[in-house]
């Protein structure tokens, strides 16, 4: 008995099966999934939750469907041209319509598996497992309603899973990094927040729930003088809590280090890379970390003794940040970033510097606090915040064609390295130049006077992390 015969017999067994309660549900579930409507609707619903993991899963799912659907409909079906099953044994009440396209592989099953795989990669089990169950139901409905043979569905599922996993090649799945834990939790910790000074520039409605959760905490508005307010707060705090993105958190880390107090990161900024690396994606995650009292040591890097927690850079990227900041109030952050990237592509030129005593013409330089992903000129994600290393990546570009390739790597992230790409790890880096360099660190830019010295300070900053 060959595979085609086994497939037909399995189809006939399903056609003859009577599943009480599903005769009405499964055909309509398959119809709702036509053209991905079910999955796009679910993605929109998950996106509206505001929960980062669910929003990422929804976006990854849509991208995965975008990869799976053309490969199935434009390649798979045209290549194999398998006819649809004969439905004379399928009860008429299950057949809502007979598709006119070829049968192998199943496009419905591919889209369902692609979306479910993306959710498994990103979302917690309490959300991803029901999505997997829904996807399995859609796939089974294609056999139950006579639209596909089981082999069509299996091939569609495998194609969808492959599409979901393929998204990891250009969009790594965030993972909580390794940290060095204290042997004890913080002492004299008040669950209602006594001794906690919260520095924020968010509107009152955004932090209203936070005030309710920490009624004994002191709240300070840092608008206008962020560095000064953080310095004052750290001087009188037992715990310094900061609301904001990476730039604000980096400034808070400087104050926390000077005063020797632990830092509680509340991810309420536009970009929250450091918080996500700690496993803190929401304010609820941060509060859970505080209430558990779980502290960790993490590494800090410095640029001429100014601490940064994620990355520093000079060259094209710092110019792009400056251009984006000048435009983002008028047109929004992401459109401003796109316009800035285009203008940098047209006008940026390499900078002449001396790197650890060796002359270089550098178009783009990244220096990471701890080692990031292995490939490409742009750091992506870290799995260790205590490795005592700087991740150094340089791209030297002179000709326009190579500049286009370099910018493609900057925007796309994990790509294969360029011929002019160098990377290594070290505990220090010295940059010399004839004039001050515009340097970006944790999303902020400044003029740095050479020599510019980057150094690593292992396990220096204490932060709250979820257990």
TrEMBL record:
Descriptive protein name: Bifunctional phosphatase PAP2/diacylglycerol kinase family protein
SMART domains, A to Z: acidPPc, DAGKc
InterPro entries named among the record's database cross-references: ATP-NAD_kinase_N, Diacylglycerol_kinase_cat_dom, NAD/diacylglycerol_kinase_sf, PAP2/HPO, PAP2/HPO_sf, YegS/DAGK_C
Entries under SUPFAM superfamilies matching the protein: Acid phosphatase/Vanadium-dependent haloperoxidase (SSF48317), NAD kinase/diacylglycerol kinase-like (SSF111331)
PANTHER family according to UniProt: DECAPRENYLPHOSPHORYL-5-PHOSPHORIBOSE PHOSPHATASE RV3807C-RELATED, SPHINGOSINE-1-PHOSPHATE PHOSPHOHYDROLASE
Pfam families cross-referenced by the UniProt entry: DAGK_cat (PF00781), PAP2 (PF01569), YegS_C (PF19279)
Domain of life: Bacteria
Membrane topology category: Multi-pass membrane protein
Molecular functions per Gene Ontology: kinase activity
UniProt organism field: Actinocorallia aurantiaca
Compartment list: Cell membrane
Keyword flag Kinase: yes
Domain DAGKc: 229-307
